[in-house]
Amino acid sequence: MCVHIPARARRAVLLDNGMGAPQEYWDWVCGALPADMGYVRFNRPGYGLSTPDTGYGLESRFELLQELRDTYLADLPVVLAGHSLGGYFVAAYASLHPDAVRGVTQVVMIDATEVVSLRHARRTDVDRWSHQRMVMERVFAATGLSVFRPAMNAHQQYRPDVNRSYRAFLATPRTWATAHREYRDAMTYPELAALDCPLTVVTAENNIGDNTLHAGIQARLAVISRRARHHFVEGSDHESLLAVRRHAEEVTELIAGEPPAEPLGASWQPSTTGRRAGAEKRAGAEKAEKAAKTERREEELA
Fold first, then answer.
1. Residue spans of alpha helices (H) in 97-124
2. What is the C-alpha to C-alpha distance for residues 136 and 130, in angstroms, rounded to an integer?
3. For 4, 224, 248, 260, which has the most beta carbons within 10 A of its beta carbon?
4. Residue 271 has what pLDDT?
5. DSSP states of 231-255 as a string?
6. Rounded distance, CA 241 to CA 125, Å?
7. What angle do CA 283, 284, 287 make, to 5 degrees?
8. Residue 104: strand pairing partners
9. DSSP bridge pairs for 272
């Protein structure tokens, strides 16, 4: 666990990890947060040095999030942010746990797991591949082979000390045992239907498999709140959203910025920083070209 609450903190973010990932992978996000925003990041039970959890279901996840808030965040306004399965956990907590939404300024689901699609994938080739991968990663970790072919963070894009910690985390067999258990357990979780606080859904532009299908699945997540936005990070994939610094800093802007205040609406279009910047650049170029033409006409008339 890593807790950073500055003396002048006026707000904080609680960061929940994806399946099979350590709390260190929020490093770029935490480093880009504004000075008035604290954070709590942690490993769920069974990961890293945390005590294994003997319970199943969502209630133990909700109790952990509530305990972390009560212990470290006191009365600070809080953003709940999660990546992958962690994105589902924070949204489910705010949606289903009694009074959890009180004090929450927004929920940020970062390329989050959509449990209905996960459930529909059971016994398909995708499911069999996922099951086989986690079993094999557990074997690789137990035999030391994971050191030579890490399952995640293969390009080691964090700071050196974070890369070393990440590699050690992946080389622990119980990491993959816990991930496998979470994967199976997630297939029993309920679909999220309503969220009574602002919601930001962040989606990777490039994903393994069908990007159009992935974008559609992510879009379904954004309609559970009446104050929502759906943002694509151009050039990112599921892992690089947090592992690549420029992508992580874009995610941080969404976490720390003003939450959405309006529904997506019938004319909804997903936003991207790159597309907005591109549109502004094109608009500027068109304006400059129009001004130049006007100036030339005036010179001809003169």
1. 115-120
2. 10
3. 248
4. 80
5. EEETT--TTHHHHSHHHHHHHHHHH
6. 26
7. 85
8. 78
9. 232
Q: pLDDT, tens digit, for every residue of 208-229?
A: 667 888 888 899 999 999 999 9
pLDDT (tens digit, 9 = 90+) per residue, 251-276?
999 999 999 999 887 667 778 775 44
Residue type, 87: G
Q: Which run of H or E residues covers position 224? A: none
Go through the chain and tell me how many residues it has.
302
pLDDT above 70 covers a percentage of the chain that reads 88
Nearest to 29 by CA among 250, 238, 231, 200: 250
Report which secondary-structure segment, H or E, holds 302.
Answer: none
Distance CA 96, CA 194 (A): 9
Tell me the C-alpha distance between 206 and 234, whole Å: 8
* pTM for this predicted structure: 0.86
Triad 75, 42, 260: Cα angle to 5°: 55
With tokens 């399965």, the residue in question is: 85
Nearest-angstrom CA–CA distance, 173 and 145: 11
